[in-house]
Amino acid sequence: MSATISHTGLVLGRWTRASYRQPALIAFTLVQPAIWLLLFGQLFQGVVHIPGFGNSSYIAFLTPGIVMMTALMTSGWSGTSFIQDMERGVMDRMLASPVSRGGLMAGQLLSSASTTLIQTILVFAIGIAAGARYHGGIGGYLVTILASVLVGLSFGSLSNAVALLTRQQTALIGISQFVSLPLTFMSSIMIDPSVAPHWVNVAARFNPVDWATIAARQSLAADPDWSSVWRHVGYLVAFTLVVGWLSTRAFRTYQRSV
């Protein structure tokens, strides 16, 4: 365990330094969620007038959803760093060394999680500047940050597993889009479940992105249903642990195939 923690720190440092050497990429990952929030906030602001919509401020309703959407979309690209390492021969040297497989995965994911954290804070800052108001206190913000990081970690793990199994950038991009877009629109990110089609609500019950969105919105409410919040956070934690274990196992499949 001590070796895994030590290796995680070293790998985290490596990916963090690599990220700061690409300022254009950092700027894009921070500006993109702001565009989504302002664009969708203006485009769909009229939905609050639909009978049954449970929120009078669409920007307040949308902001937690965009937080989760950003975490999902950004984490979908996580595996590209592994593919770059494969193409340069770095991955083979890593796996030939005594580095912990768990540390190799965790360090890269924690580096991506730091980006998710910054994006979450940025989206909230823009949402509040645009008029969003929340009465859940600091606890609501912390739960939202936790949920967004869990979304980033879980789908980042899936992206890394796909990268290890396919070893192709085009395949990773295609699979990422195939997964992320349905998960986004079969959730309550942009629309209140009360006015969505019944089949969307049924699908959302099994959607980790919707679990995160529900936990965030309820924790930010004036009178949160904490039992529902922690139940959905628990679902997210379990999902993250399962896909994290599966993605670590993907290293073995990669090693057998090279």
Automatic annotation (TrEMBL):
Quote the Pfam families the UniProt record gives: ABC2_membrane
Q: Which PROSITE patterns match?
A: ABC_TM2
Tell me the membrane topology, using the record's own terms. Multi-pass membrane protein
Q: Does the keyword Magnesium apply?
A: no
From the record, give the transmembrane residue ranges: 24-44, 56-83, 104-132, 138-158, 170-191, 229-247
Q: What is the protein name stated in its UniProt record?
A: Transport permease protein
Q: Where in the cell is it found?
A: Cell membrane; Membrane
Span of domain ABC transmembrane type-2: 24-254
What is the species listed in this Swiss-Prot or TrEMBL entry? Answer: Kribbella hippodromi
Q: What is its main location?
A: membrane
Keywords assigned by UniProt?
Answer: Antibiotic resistance, Cell membrane, Membrane, Transmembrane, Transmembrane helix, Transport
Q: Which family does it belong to?
A: Belongs to the ABC-2 integral membrane protein family.
